[in-house]
Design a protein that fits this description.
InterPro entries (chains A, B): Asp_semialdehyde_DH, Asp_semialdehyde_DH_beta, NAD(P)-bd_dom_sf, Semialdehyde_DH_NAD-bd, Semialdhyde_DH_dimer_dom
Oligomer: homodimer
Subunit structure (chains A, B): Homodimer.
Organism (chains A, B): Streptomyces zagrosensis
CATH superfamily of the largest domain in chain A: Dihydrodipicolinate Reductase, domain 2
Number of helices of chain A: 11
GO biological process, one term (chains A, B): diaminopimelate biosynthetic process
Radius of gyration of chain A: 21 Å
Protein name (chains A, B): Aspartate-semialdehyde dehydrogenase
Largest sheet of chain A: 6 strands, parallel
Strand order of the largest sheet of chain A: 5-2-1-6-7-8
């Protein structure tokens, strides 16, 4: 365990209270997910000694608030990882690819929210409610955090899998624009200003002409949905769709699981929704699924459509759990369920799960686990 | 064949040109679909003699334009159907349930776009590109037009079925607000004005509080998606989801087809989109599917994501065909395809298909077919 007092720009605060606790670095502290992360670190049980904020050199010197204290951001460098026990990375793939191994070489456990290491067989891909045990085996000193779309459903799927044995997932997403970062949010907000108060949306191309620049998206996001997220990969699949498939298999420990996803972007700021057709090895009932989901950690069952109760992004945004509603048993298949699932893509879909993984490591390092 | 000159308020226009042609009545001419219908009747090959416009008594006397001529709306009554050969109904279920049989008893073929008769075994449910032959057998003198969500995909599915033999459909919808009529459109437009230019959409319930009244929807439509359309039926299914199942089976003539739908409303004015997992009896390839879809009547293949080509509602709205893109073969199943399909829910999804059915009947009545 590293000391606290020997680092400048520290967020150590009350040294006595934090003595003996591990040091956390947040790399990418000034980004969209980093900002949510600082809020989450301020809300959760305080397991950390120092919290060091790291960002690109151009952000160095800025002061950000975490745990109610001002902490100065330091520039990303090898030295910035001195004495760090756990380093969270919320940065682009190529930055993680370069710097997470450096953090690991300095003795930190890197918890990475990029796509750089997720499918590396020597890097565990962890969702604490589903496979916390996997975090202990990390040959490269790196643990990956899953993609936000996978994370928006996997806690609920893991709970159902534990009971019924999952054999197939067919998923369609309704993904929020914040999955494309601040630029995605700004683009939708600007487009909404252009279409609000108009009669647009009834003639071919009228919305496209009115919004002009589509920003990071391959089509207008206001008054539209766009069936493409990420980049184009083999056989017409997008990177986002392949992530849902490959990551779900790895997290659940089911390398042969049948998984098909079609990812569609919708004009929602934050919170991904998914329709899920989940097939199991054993017969299912709605009552049994309800019981499992109602008691699963990290899941909220919201399923009483007679009273208008089902999850929607507008209600789920800003909350931590995976929300599940519209649970039905497939009429043609007693082994399959249909569900509608919502999860905040910046919280459980990114910052929260990263924080949870870091806490699992902290507990291990301090002998609590 | 009825004459033209014996009806007042007629839209007969040039009597000589229209002599011998069948008389059409449009019931519900002043509604959302009726308005689109008048435009479609003005664009298509002119197979009609008189076009009579019928609506509720409070709309009687209004003048509407069809085929470039002003036609006075007459009030719905038994007499209004005198001399009518084909009567289209774009009215609520209960109005159709009462009046379509009256029109039929007066000798008209009723083409009904409500849900009143769709599952009646004595009423054919017709999509001309798929099952035009079914229109000839109509023991009650009524032909039903399918629900807009079913119609948004069924032409493409019918073409693929003819080649590969369909065995299962798993569908998720991205349904436009105009499916809930003018009130639906007005509600979304009003909500967009309330959220545009704000920072809403990041805190639980902030959009819900800002938009207030949710109109005909069970949740906010701006910056949100709502996994509920229609009314609640047995076992947690909605009426809309059951329609997709039951109507697809009837149109395709496959009473045992496995069909599962989850219907979700999205903030789009007009044009429904669907993700479709389609399983077939025979092995499929993307190349063969492309070939079929590219040559299928009423279908546009738009599938080159490397060039940013895939259908979106903003581009499809106001057009007639079913647009298909993102065609992929399921990685786990050589017999299954994944597709993204868009169709204008007011045109092919309602008015256009009704007009096409009426034209099939007109051709039969005039001996052209």
């Amino acid at each position: 365990m590293s000391g606290v007092g020997d680092v400048t720009n520290s967020g150590g605060g009350s040294a006595a209270r934090r003595a003996g606790k591990p040091t956390l670095a947040v790399v990418g502290a000034t980004g969209a997910v980093g900002t949510v992360m600082l809020g989450i670190l301020s809300e959760r049980a305080d397991v950390w000694g120092e919290i060091r904020l790291i960002a690109s050199p151009r952000s160095a010197g800025r002061k950000l608030t975490v745990r109610g204290e001002q902490v100065e951001v330091v520039a990303l460098s090898e030295e910035a990882f001195e004495g760090v026990d756990v380093a969270m990375f919320d940065v682009p793939d190529e930055v993680s690819a370069q710097w997470a191994p450096i953090a690991a070489s300095k003795g930190a456990v890197a918890v990475d929210n990029s796509g750089a290491f997720r499918m590396d067989p020597n890097v565990p891909l962890v969702v604490p409610e589903v496979n916390a045990h996997a975090a202990r085996v990390r040959p490269r000193g790196i643990i990956s955090n899953p993609n936000c779309t996978t994370l928006s459903m996997i806690v609920a799927m893991g709970a159902l899998h534990a009971e019924f044995g999952l054999s197939e997932l067919i998923v369609s997403s309704y993904q929020a624009v914040s999955g494309a970062g601040k630029e995605g949010v700004d683009t939708l907000r600007e487009q909404l200003v252009k279409v609000a108060g108009t009669e647009l949306g009834t003639q071919p191309g009228d919305v496209r002409r009115a919004v002009g620049d589509t920003g990071p998206f391959p089509g207008p996001m206001a008054l539209n949905v766009v069936p493409f997220a990420g980049s184009l990969k083999e056989d017409g699949w997008t990177s986002e769709e392949l992530k849902v498939r490959n990551e779900s298999r790895k997290i659940l420990g089911l390398p042969g699981l049948r998984v098909t996803a079609t990812c569609v972007r919708v004009p929602v700021i934050t919170t991904h929704s998914l329709t899920v057709h989940a097939r199991f090895e054993n017969e299912v009932t709605v009552a049994a699924a309800h019981e499992i989901l109602a008691s699963a950690p990290g899941v909220v069952l919201c399923d009483n459509p007679a009273k208008g109760e089902f999850p929607t992004p507008a209600d789920v945004v800003g909350t931590d759990p995976t929300w599940v509603g519209r649970v039905r048993r497939s009429m043609d298949d007693p082994n399959a369920l249909e569900l509608f699932v919502c999860g905040d893509n910046l919280r459980k879909g990114a910052a929260l799960n990263t924080a949870q993984i870091a806490e699992v490591v902290a507990a291990e390092l301090t002998g609590v686990a």
